[in-house]
Task: structure prediction
Amino acid sequence: MLISLVAAADEKNGIGKNNQLLCYLPADLKFFKQLTMGHHVLMGRKSYESVGKPLPGRTNIIITRQHLSIQDCFVFNSIEEGIIFAKNRGEEELFIIGGDNIFRQSLQLADLIYLTRIHHHFDADAFFPVLDDQWQLIKDDKHAADEKNKFEFSFQTYKKV
Result:
């Protein structure tokens, strides 16, 4: 099973502020939906709370140290437990979707990273980990700002080498 991280980050790796995304970028939301639809998605409790409901069309795995039951979601105490759950259910590619603490803990487990790089700098309080030389950029699809997307951005894919 492939393990992939999915995030949108600004030029300084900012991914959020006050448990919310940094900006509204419809092209990124469409890309995220197409990429993850029909798959298992794994996220931390705070990321789940920021979304407010299970993502439709996906198996939602929530990681928390708290003893919670969340309707229509599978709750585990560790990332490893969530990964084993997805693998045992026959998942081909598990998508880890945040937040920053989950990304930091799972970076060494990942095979691919789908990163929407927003070519702007925001005031952020949550950050995507800095990628070292074990990650190779294999795709960089640049997009200009337009009437729907206020900022220039690139869909980047990294592969662990």
User: Anything to note?
Assistant: The chain has one domain: 2-160. The mean pLDDT is 97. The helical segments are 26-36, 45-51, 79-88, 100-106.
